[in-house]
Amino acid sequence: MAEIRTVTPPDDQLSAGELLPPGRRFRIVLVLGLLTALGPLTIDMYLPALPTITDDFGATAAAVQLTLTGTLLGLAFGQLLIGPLSDAVGRRGPLLAGVGVHLIASVLCVIAPNLAVLGSLRVLQGLGAAAATVVAMAIVRDLFSGLAAAKLLSRLMLVVGVAPILAPTIGGQTLQFTSWRGVFVVLTVVAAAIMAAAALVLPETLPVERRRNGGLAGTIRDYGGLFTDRVYVGLILVTGLAMAALIAYVSGSSYVLQDGFGLSKQQFAYVFAGGAIGLIGATQLNVRLLRRWTPQQILVGSLLAGVGLGLILLVLAATETGGLAGILIPLWLVLATVGLAMPNAPALALSRHGETAGTAAALLGAVQFGVGALAAPLVGVLGTGAVAMSIVVFGGMLAATVVCFVVVQPHRLPVEQREPVAAFVH
């Protein structure tokens, strides 16, 4: 395995990840994509089964949506623990242990006897997926910086977009042959495959000399330092609020489309895929837009567009104008604006704290999924109709825009920052 040392590249030098041989770089990025997919697959694969789980356990829709909230909370708090741990002991150990926890929790979900047990196991699944999410982000920051990081995050967002397409479709197809428990059998297989790929392909990207071993006091100090950075805090809040809009769609769409508009589980999977296509297209468009505009310019434009489209969605839902198309078209367009915002806000945030990449990625992920977790029960409390979902979608985009302009003040950010990055020595 290659050694790693820290270098500070001049302005015209490629980042460490770009110095890797193309084949090796491709394999590493591919596995990072798989790790990034574990969280979305865990969240989305059982969405077509939510109404079935509601009937099976004789529960309310809001109670079943709490199992989704539990997963998101596990993703949030798990990252707060695993991020600093990965800064202290390296990336591989916490990563493999976390995916192993996800694997065991998935097996136990198959035999969950009631909703309370299922909800608790979903929290454990979230904790396990948190390791995959935060370590993947930290590895990106270990190897890439500046525009290179923003471009790679856009590629990884392709995975985040593909996962929602595949997950409900796989879940819907699984439900054709078995019960909702079969969905967790599939998740077990997926976790095992991802764990094997990570073990075989990913190197240790954090050398011993760059690890932070300050213990609990050091972790608290690192988090405290992050909270003193107003711009970083604002950017992670923007990411979380944009995620809240996305989660409002994820948690509410199965009830809106299946119960409200009478779509079958398979039809729901196809329609859900349409929104993911918009998300995918936007993230890949972002790579091209970065050739002309800065990440902060794209972030501002996407948020403003998201607010306008979210308002249109809310008005059409409240007035019941346009039927199914009146909901789906503006909703898909809002998701596209989220797809533009999501790669750029994290890239800008992480570029400010390369020395504590794991901790910075952990707090980013915790806020992202923590704020997002609030959206799922909020939709349930407001109702299971299109208006309730639209209110939370619009509210998330509006709040993200306000935070961006008031706290981040993107017009004051530098165009690009050059920081020390890790380089492979062959």
Order of helices and strands: EHHHHHHHHHHHHHHHE
CATH topology, which one? Growth Hormone, Chain: A
Please indicate the percent range of residues in DSSP E strands (runs of 2 or more). Answer: under 5%
Q: Major sheet, described briefly?
A: 2 strands, antiparallel
The tally of helices reads: 15
Low-confidence segments, ≥5 residues, pLDDT <50?
Answer: 1-13, 417-426
What is the C-level CATH assignment? Answer: Mainly Alpha
Give a description of the structure.
With 426 residues, the chain is an all-alpha fold. It has one domain (3-425): Growth Hormone, Chain: A (Up-down Bundle). It contains 15 helices and two strands. It has helices at residues 16-19, 22-44, 50-57, 61-89, 92-110, 115-143, 146-177, 181-201, 215-227, 230-260, 265-289, 295-319, 323-350, 357-382, 386-408; strands at 3-7, 421-425. A two-stranded antiparallel sheet has the order 1-2. The longest helix has 32 residues, at 146-177.
